[in-house]
Hints:
By secondary structure, the chain is mainly α. The protein has helices spanning 7-20, 61-67, 72-78, 84-106, and strands spanning 38-41, 56-59. The protein has a two-stranded antiparallel ribbon with strand order 1-2.
Amino acid sequence: MAKWKNSAVKQMRKRQLAKEHGYKCFYCKTKFAYSVLIIEHIVPFSRGGTNDMNNTILACDSCNSSKHNQLIEEWFERNDFRVASLYREYRYRKTISNTLRKMIDSGKSAT
């Protein structure tokens, strides 16, 4: 697993994501304390993902654990989500995920 360059960068990114998304898990939309949220990768490392800012979101431990190394669209297909706002955000993130996957497949850097 690739490591963050340093913990200060990781914490800065986590704070930025927490503020952007109101301290909520991207998947279940439940609000959590900052310390409970985990940086989650849209495209997992095992599938070619990076620590790039466009490949990170925040998730609770339960959602993060259930996603394993699935792509975000694979995880949503296996989970029965009917919340309209979540679906809209999923479609937005799917566009990002597809772009990243194309870049990975073509061997280009995501940065």
